[in-house]
Protein backbone atom coordinates (compact mmCIF):
# COMPACT_ATOMS: atom_id res chain seq x y z
CA UNK A 1 0.00 0.00 0.00
CA UNK A 2 1.39 3.40 -0.84
CA UNK A 3 1.28 6.24 1.64
CA UNK A 4 -1.87 8.18 0.82
CA UNK A 5 -0.68 11.15 2.83
CA UNK A 6 2.41 11.37 0.64
CA UNK A 7 0.22 11.48 -2.46
CA UNK A 8 -1.94 14.18 -0.91
CA UNK A 9 1.03 16.33 -0.04
CA UNK A 10 2.55 15.94 -3.49
CA UNK A 11 -0.64 16.83 -5.30
CA UNK A 12 -1.88 19.54 -2.96
CA UNK A 13 1.51 21.21 -3.14
CA UNK A 14 0.78 21.74 -6.84
CA UNK A 15 -2.22 23.87 -6.04
CA UNK A 16 -1.10 25.92 -3.72
CA UNK A 17 32.18 24.10 13.35
CA UNK A 18 35.13 22.34 11.79
CA UNK A 19 38.59 23.52 10.67
CA UNK A 20 39.59 24.10 7.07
CA UNK A 21 40.41 21.03 5.01
CA UNK A 22 43.83 21.57 3.49
CA UNK A 23 43.84 21.63 -0.29
CA UNK A 24 40.08 22.13 -0.70
CA UNK A 25 39.47 24.71 -3.42
CA UNK A 26 36.07 25.69 -2.00
CA UNK A 27 36.82 25.77 1.74
CA UNK A 28 35.86 28.75 3.89
CA UNK A 29 37.63 30.39 6.83
CA UNK A 30 35.36 28.42 9.15
CA UNK A 31 32.73 25.78 8.62
CA UNK A 32 29.57 27.41 7.34
CA UNK A 33 26.17 26.15 8.42
CA UNK A 34 23.64 25.48 5.65
CA UNK A 35 20.15 24.05 5.94
CA UNK A 36 18.13 22.20 3.31
CA UNK A 37 14.47 21.22 3.77
CA UNK A 38 12.99 18.01 2.37
CA UNK A 39 9.71 17.98 0.48
CA UNK A 40 8.49 14.72 1.98
CA UNK A 41 9.61 11.71 3.98
CA UNK A 42 13.04 10.54 2.90
CA UNK A 43 13.17 8.80 -0.49
CA UNK A 44 15.58 8.26 -3.35
CA UNK A 45 15.10 11.78 -4.71
CA UNK A 46 17.05 12.93 -1.65
CA UNK A 47 19.94 10.49 -1.97
CA UNK A 48 22.52 13.01 -3.16
CA UNK A 49 22.07 15.12 -0.04
CA UNK A 50 22.72 12.24 2.33
CA UNK A 51 25.62 10.92 0.27
CA UNK A 52 27.23 14.37 0.19
CA UNK A 53 26.83 14.68 3.94
CA UNK A 54 27.89 11.18 4.96
CA UNK A 55 30.72 10.79 2.44
CA UNK A 56 32.15 14.09 3.69
CA UNK A 57 31.66 16.08 0.49
CA UNK A 58 29.99 18.94 2.36
CA UNK A 59 32.73 18.82 5.01
CA UNK A 60 35.41 19.06 2.33
CA UNK A 61 33.66 22.14 0.96
CA UNK A 62 33.71 23.74 4.41
CA UNK A 63 30.02 23.17 5.05
CA UNK A 64 28.02 21.85 7.98
CA UNK A 65 24.73 20.89 6.32
CA UNK A 66 21.55 20.29 8.31
CA UNK A 67 18.99 18.24 6.38
CA UNK A 68 15.61 19.31 7.75
CA UNK A 69 12.92 16.61 7.80
CA UNK A 70 9.58 17.15 6.10
CA UNK A 71 7.05 19.12 8.12
CA UNK A 72 3.53 20.40 7.56
CA UNK A 73 5.06 23.55 6.09
CA UNK A 74 6.26 22.98 2.54
CA UNK A 75 9.95 23.33 1.70
CA UNK A 76 9.26 26.20 -0.70
CA UNK A 77 7.53 28.17 2.05
CA UNK A 78 10.40 27.51 4.48
CA UNK A 79 12.93 28.75 1.92
CA UNK A 80 10.93 31.81 0.89
CA UNK A 81 10.59 32.81 4.55
CA UNK A 82 14.31 32.22 5.26
CA UNK A 83 13.66 29.36 7.68
CA UNK A 84 15.72 27.08 5.40
CA UNK A 85 18.52 28.10 3.03
CA UNK A 86 17.61 25.52 0.39
CA UNK A 87 14.70 23.16 -0.18
CA UNK A 88 13.54 20.32 -2.38
CA UNK A 89 10.45 21.28 -4.34
CA UNK A 90 8.59 20.42 -7.50
CA UNK A 91 8.73 22.45 -10.68
CA UNK A 92 4.99 23.15 -10.54
CA UNK A 93 5.27 24.30 -6.93
CA UNK A 94 8.19 26.57 -7.80
CA UNK A 95 6.30 28.24 -10.64
CA UNK A 96 3.03 28.68 -8.77
CA UNK A 97 4.64 29.94 -5.55
CA UNK A 98 7.09 32.32 -7.21
CA UNK A 99 4.38 33.74 -9.45
CA UNK A 100 2.31 34.43 -6.34
CA UNK A 101 5.20 36.42 -4.87
CA UNK A 102 7.35 33.92 -2.98
CA UNK A 103 11.09 34.60 -2.99
CA UNK A 104 12.26 31.40 -4.72
CA UNK A 105 14.81 30.50 -7.36
CA UNK A 106 15.74 27.00 -8.53
CA UNK A 107 19.45 26.16 -8.48
CA UNK A 108 19.61 22.41 -9.18
CA UNK A 109 17.54 19.87 -11.11
CA UNK A 110 17.35 16.64 -9.12
CA UNK A 111 15.82 14.84 -12.09
CA UNK A 112 16.28 15.62 -15.76
CA UNK A 113 12.80 14.62 -16.98
CA UNK A 114 9.25 13.96 -15.79
CA UNK A 115 8.79 11.02 -13.42
CA UNK A 116 4.99 11.24 -13.15
CA UNK A 117 2.61 8.96 -15.01
CA UNK A 118 -1.12 8.43 -15.58
CA UNK A 119 -1.70 4.86 -14.36
CA UNK A 120 -4.49 2.29 -14.40
CA UNK A 121 -4.95 -1.43 -13.95
CA UNK A 122 -3.32 -3.47 -16.70
CA UNK A 123 -6.49 -5.59 -16.89
CA UNK A 124 -8.47 -2.60 -18.22
CA UNK A 125 -8.17 -3.71 -21.85
CA UNK A 126 -10.71 -1.11 -22.98
CA UNK A 127 -8.20 1.65 -22.08
CA UNK A 128 -5.99 1.55 -25.14
CA UNK A 129 -4.96 5.21 -25.26
CA UNK A 130 -5.73 8.41 -23.29
CA UNK A 131 -8.92 9.20 -25.22
CA UNK A 132 -10.43 6.12 -23.58
CA UNK A 133 -10.20 7.95 -20.23
CA UNK A 134 -13.02 10.28 -21.31
CA UNK A 135 -15.94 9.97 -18.90
CA UNK A 136 -14.02 7.82 -16.43
CA UNK A 137 -13.27 8.47 -12.75
CA UNK A 138 -9.92 9.94 -11.73
CA UNK A 139 -8.64 9.46 -8.19
CA UNK A 140 -6.92 12.69 -7.17
CA UNK A 141 -7.45 16.02 -5.48
CA UNK A 142 -8.81 18.36 -8.13
CA UNK A 143 -5.95 20.85 -8.37
CA UNK A 144 -5.75 23.14 -11.38
CA UNK A 145 -2.57 21.36 -12.47
CA UNK A 146 -4.20 17.93 -12.37
CA UNK A 147 -7.20 19.12 -14.34
CA UNK A 148 -5.08 20.81 -17.02
CA UNK A 149 -2.66 17.90 -17.23
CA UNK A 150 -5.24 15.17 -17.67
CA UNK A 151 -7.47 17.19 -20.00
CA UNK A 152 -4.49 17.98 -22.23
CA UNK A 153 -3.46 14.32 -22.40
CA UNK A 154 -6.97 13.16 -23.31
CA UNK A 155 -7.61 15.91 -25.88
CA UNK A 156 -4.21 15.41 -27.50
CA UNK A 157 -5.27 11.84 -28.20
CA UNK A 158 -8.57 12.93 -29.77
CA UNK A 159 -10.86 12.82 -26.73
CA UNK A 160 -12.94 15.58 -25.17
CA UNK A 161 -10.99 15.84 -21.93
CA UNK A 162 -13.97 15.16 -19.69
CA UNK A 163 -13.54 13.11 -16.51
CA UNK A 164 -14.82 12.97 -12.96
CA UNK A 165 -12.54 13.53 -9.98
CA UNK A 166 -13.00 11.61 -6.74
CA UNK A 167 -10.89 12.37 -3.68
CA UNK A 168 -9.09 9.22 -2.65
CA UNK A 169 -10.10 7.78 0.71
CA UNK A 170 -7.81 4.79 0.48
CA UNK A 171 -4.58 3.90 -1.27
CA UNK A 172 -4.50 4.39 -5.02
CA UNK A 173 -3.79 0.70 -5.54
CA UNK A 174 -6.85 -0.33 -3.54
CA UNK A 175 -9.01 2.28 -5.27
CA UNK A 176 -7.95 1.01 -8.69
CA UNK A 177 -8.41 -2.60 -7.64
CA UNK A 178 -11.89 -2.19 -6.23
CA UNK A 179 -13.07 -0.04 -9.11
CA UNK A 180 -13.84 3.08 -7.10
CA UNK A 181 -11.56 4.98 -9.51
CA UNK A 182 -10.43 4.17 -13.03
CA UNK A 183 -7.09 5.95 -13.13
CA UNK A 184 -4.75 8.09 -11.05
CA UNK A 185 -1.30 9.70 -11.09
CA UNK A 186 1.84 8.29 -9.54
CA UNK A 187 5.60 8.82 -9.42
CA UNK A 188 6.95 6.05 -11.62
CA UNK A 189 10.32 5.90 -9.84
CA UNK A 190 8.73 5.42 -6.40
CA UNK A 191 5.06 4.33 -6.34
CA UNK A 192 5.52 2.68 -9.71
CA UNK A 193 8.48 0.67 -8.42
CA UNK A 194 6.58 -0.22 -5.27
CA UNK A 195 3.71 -1.53 -7.39
CA UNK A 196 6.10 -3.71 -9.39
CA UNK A 197 7.62 -5.15 -6.22
CA UNK A 198 4.14 -5.97 -4.91
CA UNK A 199 3.20 -7.66 -8.18
CA UNK A 200 0.56 -5.05 -9.04
CA UNK A 201 0.08 -5.00 -12.80
CA UNK A 202 -0.35 -1.52 -14.22
CA UNK A 203 -0.14 0.30 -17.51
CA UNK A 204 0.61 3.98 -17.88
CA UNK A 205 0.78 7.00 -20.14
CA UNK A 206 3.77 9.37 -20.17
CA UNK A 207 2.70 13.01 -20.01
CA UNK A 208 5.13 14.26 -22.65
CA UNK A 209 3.83 11.73 -25.18
CA UNK A 210 0.49 13.52 -25.19
CA UNK A 211 1.03 17.25 -25.42
CA UNK A 212 2.34 18.16 -21.96
CA UNK A 213 5.85 19.66 -21.95
CA UNK A 214 8.51 17.59 -20.24
CA UNK A 215 9.75 19.00 -16.94
CA UNK A 216 12.46 18.40 -14.38
CA UNK A 217 9.79 17.41 -11.80
CA UNK A 218 12.03 17.80 -8.74
CA UNK A 219 14.35 20.74 -8.03
CA UNK A 220 16.44 22.27 -5.29
CA UNK A 221 15.61 25.92 -4.73
CA UNK A 222 16.86 28.81 -2.64
CA UNK A 223 15.77 32.42 -2.24
CA UNK A 224 17.06 35.38 -4.23
CA UNK A 225 17.93 37.05 -0.94
CA UNK A 226 20.11 34.13 0.17
CA UNK A 227 21.77 33.68 -3.22
CA UNK A 228 22.67 37.36 -3.50
CA UNK A 229 24.02 37.52 0.05
CA UNK A 230 25.93 34.20 -0.11
CA UNK A 231 27.03 33.46 -3.70
CA UNK A 232 30.18 31.50 -2.81
CA UNK A 233 28.43 29.55 -0.08
CA UNK A 234 25.55 28.68 -2.42
CA UNK A 235 27.97 27.48 -5.09
CA UNK A 236 29.83 25.34 -2.56
CA UNK A 237 26.59 23.70 -1.44
CA UNK A 238 25.24 23.10 -4.95
CA UNK A 239 28.52 21.69 -6.26
CA UNK A 240 28.99 19.38 -3.27
CA UNK A 241 25.39 18.26 -3.68
CA UNK A 242 26.00 17.47 -7.34
CA UNK A 243 29.02 15.45 -6.25
CA UNK A 244 26.67 13.47 -3.98
CA UNK A 245 24.26 12.69 -6.81
CA UNK A 246 27.17 11.83 -9.11
CA UNK A 247 28.42 9.33 -6.54
CA UNK A 248 24.93 7.81 -6.29
CA UNK A 249 24.86 7.26 -10.05
CA UNK A 250 28.35 5.76 -10.13
CA UNK A 251 28.10 3.74 -6.90
CA UNK A 252 24.41 2.93 -6.40
CA UNK A 253 24.94 0.07 -3.96
CA UNK A 254 26.99 2.12 -1.52
CA UNK A 255 24.76 5.16 -1.97
CA UNK A 256 21.59 3.18 -1.22
CA UNK A 257 23.23 1.69 1.87
CA UNK A 258 24.19 5.17 3.08
CA UNK A 259 20.66 6.49 2.59
CA UNK A 260 19.13 3.55 4.45
CA UNK A 261 21.67 3.72 7.29
CA UNK A 262 20.94 7.41 7.78
CA UNK A 263 17.17 6.85 7.88
CA UNK A 264 16.64 3.43 9.46
CA UNK A 265 13.27 4.27 10.98
CA UNK A 266 11.79 5.70 7.78
CA UNK A 267 13.33 3.39 5.17
CA UNK A 268 12.40 -0.13 6.19
CA UNK A 269 12.26 -1.68 2.71
CA UNK A 270 15.78 -1.86 1.26
CA UNK A 271 14.51 -3.56 -1.90
CA UNK A 272 12.36 -0.51 -2.69
CA UNK A 273 15.28 1.88 -2.21
CA UNK A 274 17.60 -0.18 -4.38
CA UNK A 275 15.04 -0.72 -7.14
CA UNK A 276 13.95 2.92 -7.09
CA UNK A 277 17.53 4.15 -7.38
CA UNK A 278 18.14 1.71 -10.24
CA UNK A 279 15.09 3.16 -12.00
CA UNK A 280 16.36 6.71 -11.53
CA UNK A 281 19.75 5.75 -12.94
CA UNK A 282 18.67 3.45 -15.78
CA UNK A 283 15.98 5.92 -16.86
CA UNK A 284 18.57 8.71 -17.04
CA UNK A 285 16.64 10.79 -14.53
CA UNK A 286 19.50 11.69 -12.19
CA UNK A 287 22.01 11.96 -15.02
CA UNK A 288 20.73 12.52 -18.55
CA UNK A 289 21.95 10.57 -21.57
CA UNK A 290 24.05 13.57 -22.55
CA UNK A 291 25.69 13.57 -19.12
CA UNK A 292 23.73 16.51 -17.68
CA UNK A 293 23.61 16.30 -13.89
CA UNK A 294 21.82 18.98 -11.93
CA UNK A 295 21.60 21.37 -14.88
CA UNK A 296 18.23 22.91 -15.66
CA UNK A 297 17.38 23.06 -19.37
CA UNK A 298 16.28 26.65 -20.16
CA UNK A 299 14.04 25.48 -23.02
CA UNK A 300 12.39 22.90 -20.78
CA UNK A 301 11.81 25.40 -17.97
CA UNK A 302 10.40 27.94 -20.40
CA UNK A 303 8.09 25.39 -22.02
CA UNK A 304 6.51 24.19 -18.76
CA UNK A 305 6.19 27.78 -17.59
CA UNK A 306 4.44 28.73 -20.81
CA UNK A 307 2.12 25.74 -20.45
CA UNK A 308 1.16 26.73 -16.90
CA UNK A 309 0.59 30.34 -17.98
CA UNK A 310 -1.54 29.39 -20.99
CA UNK A 311 -3.57 26.96 -18.87
CA UNK A 312 -4.40 29.73 -16.39
CA UNK A 313 -2.69 27.94 -13.52
CA UNK A 314 -0.33 30.79 -12.58
CA UNK A 315 -1.88 33.36 -10.25
CA UNK A 316 -0.57 36.51 -8.61
CA UNK A 317 -0.44 37.26 -4.90
CA UNK A 318 -4.11 38.22 -4.93
CA UNK A 319 -5.15 34.92 -6.47
CA UNK A 320 -5.87 36.45 -9.87
CA UNK A 321 -4.91 34.58 -13.04
CA UNK A 322 -1.90 36.24 -14.64
CA UNK A 323 -2.70 38.40 -17.64
CA UNK A 324 0.92 38.84 -18.71
CA UNK A 325 3.45 36.08 -19.26
CA UNK A 326 6.34 36.25 -16.74
CA UNK A 327 10.01 36.06 -17.65
CA UNK A 328 10.61 32.45 -16.65
CA UNK A 329 14.38 32.84 -17.01
CA UNK A 330 14.22 34.60 -13.62
CA UNK A 331 12.76 31.50 -11.98
CA UNK A 332 16.01 29.52 -12.06
CA UNK A 333 19.78 29.75 -12.47
CA UNK A 334 22.51 27.23 -13.27
CA UNK A 335 25.26 29.62 -12.15
CA UNK A 336 25.91 27.91 -8.80
CA UNK A 337 26.82 24.70 -10.62
CA UNK A 338 30.01 26.40 -11.83
Automatic annotation (TrEMBL):
For this UniProt record, the keywords arranged alphabetically read as follows: Iron, Metal-binding, Pyridoxal phosphate, Signal, Thiamine biosynthesis, Transferase
Q: Which GO terms describe its molecular function?
A: metal ion binding; transferase activity
Q: Which residues cross the membrane?
A: none
**Record-annotated SsuA/THI5-like domain positions:** 43-255
Q: Give a GO biological-process term.
A: thiamine biosynthetic process
Q: Which residues are the signal sequence here?
A: 1-29
Q: Which domain of life is it from?
A: Bacteria
Q: Which reaction does it catalyse?
A: N(6)-(pyridoxal phosphate)-L-lysyl-[4-amino-5-hydroxymethyl-2-methylpyrimidine phosphate synthase] + L-histidyl-[4-amino-5-hydroxymethyl-2-methylpyrimidine phosphate synthase] + 2 Fe(3+) + 4 H2O = L-lysyl-[4-amino-5-hydroxymethyl-2-methylpyrimidine phosphate synthase] + (2S)-2-amino-5-hydroxy-4-oxopentanoyl-[4-amino-5-hydroxymethyl-2-methylpyrimidine phosphate synthase] + 4-amino-2-methyl-5-(phosphooxymethyl)pyrimidine + 3-oxopropanoate + 2 Fe(2+) + 2 H(+)
- So, what pathway does this thing act in? Cofactor biosynthesis; thiamine diphosphate biosynthesis
| Keyword flag Metal-binding | yes
Signal keyword on record:
yes
**Role this protein plays:** Responsible for the formation of the pyrimidine heterocycle in the thiamine biosynthesis pathway. Catalyzes the formation of hydroxymethylpyrimidine phosphate (HMP-P) from histidine and pyridoxal phosphate (PLP). The protein uses PLP and the active site histidine to form HMP-P, generating an inactive enzyme. The enzyme can only undergo a single turnover, which suggests it is a suicide enzyme.
Q: Report quaternary structure and partners.
A: Homodimer.
Family statement drawn from the similarity comment of this UniProt entry: Belongs to the NMT1/THI5 family.
This protein is called what? Answer: Thiamine pyrimidine synthase
Q: Native species of this protein?
A: Mesorhizobium erdmanii
Amino acid sequence: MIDLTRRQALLLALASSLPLIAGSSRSFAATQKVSVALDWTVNTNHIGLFVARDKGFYHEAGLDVDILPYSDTGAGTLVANRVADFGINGTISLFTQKTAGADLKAVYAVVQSETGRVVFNAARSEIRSPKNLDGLIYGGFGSAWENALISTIIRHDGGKGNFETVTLGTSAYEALANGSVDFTLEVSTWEGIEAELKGVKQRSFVYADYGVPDEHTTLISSSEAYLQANPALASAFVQATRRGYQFAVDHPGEAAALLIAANKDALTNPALIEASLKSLIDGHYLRAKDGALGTMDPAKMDAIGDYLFTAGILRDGDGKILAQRPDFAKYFSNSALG
